[in-house]
Structures are given as C-alpha cells and as structure tokens.
Amino acid sequence: MKKINDYIKKYILYIVIAMLIVVIISIVLVIIGGRGKSIKTELVIEDRCDITIQSLETFYSDEKYDYQFSSDKSECTYAIINNEEYLIKDALNKGLITIEEAERAGLEFYKSEK
Fold first, then answer.
1. Of the residues 2, 31, 46, 48, which has the fewest C-beta atoms closer than 10 A?
2. How far is the C-alpha of 93 from the C-alpha of 17, rounded, in Å?
3. In the beta sheet, which residues pair with residue 79?
C-alpha cells in the first residue's frame, strides 16, 4: 500500500510540475508577443500646418533615399498611432512606423536618391 501512495504522490507532483511549466511558457509567450513592432492597429497622418513656405524640406532619410515635404511641414505633421501623437519625423526616426506605412496612411512626400 505504501508503494501505491508513493506512486500517486509522484504522479501528482509530475502533473503539478507540468502544469507550472505550461503556465510559465504561456506567460513568457504573452510577454514576448506584446513586444512586436507590428502591433499597430491604427495609423492616421494629420497635417496641422496653417501656412507653409514652399521649399523642399527633408524630414526623413534612410540608406538609399531622402524624403522631403514640398514645404516646411515637419513640425506640424503628425502620426497618430493607436491614439498616441508623434511628429511624423520622430515616429519615423524612432522606428514606430515605416515610411511605407506612412505613405499607405496618406502621407505625401517627394523621394530622392542620395
């Protein structure tokens, strides 16, 4: 009878350990999954410029291209990402959005090779 009780205790211990492992793995996956860059659910581009001076203004650059507005708009054009506001140039430079995402959301700009 003692051997049966020992067997049951070990079996219950193994089940508890397995359940703890599953819970820990689930928590880790939720934490890691929440860090993805592509979690943006909403992107709105908003131009709040009243009067602008017509001249090319570079607001972003990558390895191949410079991206310019047709006027001085980098201080009044915003990316609203999940209801958080950022200047478009800051959102791009911080990697919160890509230039392709901004263009799909309606950002108008000129692109020139470096």
1. 2
2. 46
3. 45, 86
Q: For residue 83, what are its two tokens? A: 């209801």
Identify the pLDDT of residue 97: 93
Residue 90 pLDDT: 96
71 contacts: CB under 8 Å, gap ≥ 6? 49, 52, 53, 54, 55, 57
Number of H helices, E strands in the chain: 3, 6
- The whole-number pLDDT of residue 53 equals 78
Angle at 95 between CA 90 and CA 99, to 5 degrees: 80
Cα gap 84→114, rounded to integer Å: 32
- Residue of 66, 71, 74 whose CA lies nearest to 99: 66
Q: Please give the model's pTM, rounded to 2 decimal places.
A: 0.62
CA–CA dist 70, 52 (Å, integer): 9
Contact between 52 and 73 (Cβ < 8 Å): yes
